[in-house]
Amino acid sequence: MMMLVYAIDVGTTNLKVVLYDERLAVLASASGPVSYERSGDRVEFDAEALFQTILALVADCARRAAVTTREHDAVLAFTGQAESLVLVDASGRPVRPALSWLDNRAGVEAELMAASFSADAAFETSGQPFASAAWPAAKLRWLRAHEPETMAGTHEVLMVKDYLIRCFTGRSVGEVSTRGFTYLWDVRRSEYWAEMLEFCGITSDQLPEVAAAGSDVGPVMPDVVAQLPEAVAYRVNVGALDHFCAMAGTGSYRAGIISESAGTVLSLSMLASDWRFDPSRRISFHTGLHPDDIVLFNGADSGGVVLEWFRREGLQNLSHAELERELTSRSALGVPVFLPYLTGLNPPDYLPDARGAFVGISLSHDRFDLAYAVEEGLAHLLKRNIDSFTGARAQQIVSTGGGTASTFRNQLKADVCEVDVVVPNEREATCRGAAVLALVAAGELASIHDAAKLNPPLTARYQPSHGRSRTELVNRAERYALFEDSLQRLYAT
């Protein structure tokens, strides 16, 4: 019997559904925006509306793929964001609007958490180098102080993917690769962190059971099946965190390979080899796609958002194509150095006072020199993170996301990091990875690595430039040294 997989990506900006067959051929895709209510630091959304949108997108995919027969099994495989918080009553209905991970109201509570727990011990337990207002733990502490009536009416504390799985199955199930983004989970013991639960005023009974990544968690409830396209049966697979699914979708879930998401933010993941906890290495760590795996993860807010800022403010919205043509003819020689810390904290340094800066600017420089410096500054930030991950040169970088549309940027990253950059022609790597996990759970694939044989995406490879003069090669190293020196002199103290 034919098997279909609806891979559901619960993104921050958009919800996406991609329909695959058992050979990982894309049959259809559909997407819709996520709407938010914003007020100052507060960012909330309607969780029930998300569920209804997903139902509509699944139906849209079936219509576009002309799925007219019910003679198939269907799997709903989830991936997407982790931290967004949904509180529900005993019937599973939200007791208040959901809190996005973008919501920063709990800054004071994050500082209180940091002051209440040993920094190294909290890092070793949670996998997170620092407490943050983004984590559900901080938001729960805020709700405890400011909305005690909400907490009194809360039966279960769920993240957004947990909530959607509950909507489909009636079961509250979390997935282990996302637990480290709650600040409520003991990553090394694979259990909830009792001391933090007490600090936040909740109990483990209010939290979902936790399943391994890629687990099937049961059938879809009959009343929900009635709202879905016809199939013999529907079941749900918990999938994994979007970044880790992207690794499975692009074949980069291997030790020594950096998986880069070049989007609005710069995110990096890498399957660790012979990992040992070291408090001096401030890199978050998480359970991966297999129970004994540790995946390292860093997310830097200074990514594509910085490029778009300069294109808007410094280049008057010059088209990407025109900027690409201009930068391709430029040299790094004599260009200022740029520190891309417009959003403040960036790993691996986490310097609280860091800000964006041009260093070495003069009257001879024009706006394209500055644009080159911005692009190069982000490549330097990438190199800095890669070096902290590996301690040595990575085997290669596999890059996905909107930023990979720029061939100049891809080549610059290869040159600065001195490693091949591989760009798969795969628009929805996270959804492909979720589908891979579902196919493994169904026995269609023996392992995630077998997916490389099924409709693999084409790839472009950018190698560090050869044939350059020794002066230019030394200049790359000197420019990175200047980047590091400027960062330390301006902000390390």
What can you see in these coordinates?
- Helix 2 crosses helix 4 (136-146).
- This protein has 493 residues and is α+β, with helices and mostly antiparallel strands.
- Helix content is 35%, strand content 24%.
- The strands form seven sheets. The protein has a seven-stranded mixed sheet, sandwiched between helices. It has a six-stranded mixed sheet with strand order 3-2-1-6-15-14, sandwiched between helices.
- The model has no long low-confidence stretch (mean pLDDT 94).
- The protein has 16 helices and 24 strands.
Summarize the SSE layout with pairings.
Blueprint lengths: L1 E9 L3 E8 L4 E8 L3 E3 L2 E4 L1 H18 L7 E9 L4 E4 L9 E2 L7 H10 L2 H8 L9 H11 L1 H5 L3 E4 H10 L3 E3 H4 L5 E2 L4 E2 L1 H7 L8 E3 L4 E4 L2 H4 L7 E9 H9 L6 E6 L3 E6 L12 E4 L6 E7 L3 H10 L6 H9 L8 E3 L17 E3 L7 H24 L5 E5 L6 H11 L3 E4 L4 H13 L17 E4 L7 H22 L2
Parallel strand pairs: 1-6, 6-15, 10-13, 16-22, 22-23
Antiparallel strand pairs: 1-2, 2-3, 4-5, 5-8, 7-9, 11-12, 14-15, 16-17, 17-19, 18-19, 20-21, 23-24
Write a concise synopsis of the structure shown.
This protein has helices at 47-64, 107-116, 119-126, 136-146, 148-152, 160-169, 176-179, 194-200, 222-225, 242-250, 304-313, 320-328, 367-390, 407-417, 429-441, 470-491; strands spanning 2-10, 14-21, 26-33, 37-39, 42-45, 72-80, 85-88, 98-99, 156-159, 173-175, 185-186, 191-192, 209-211, 216-219, 233-241, 257-262, 266-271, 284-287, 294-300, 337-339, 357-359, 396-400, 421-424, 459-462. By secondary structure, the chain is α+β, with helices and mostly antiparallel strands. A hairpin with a 3-residue loop joins strand 1 and strand 2 (14-21).
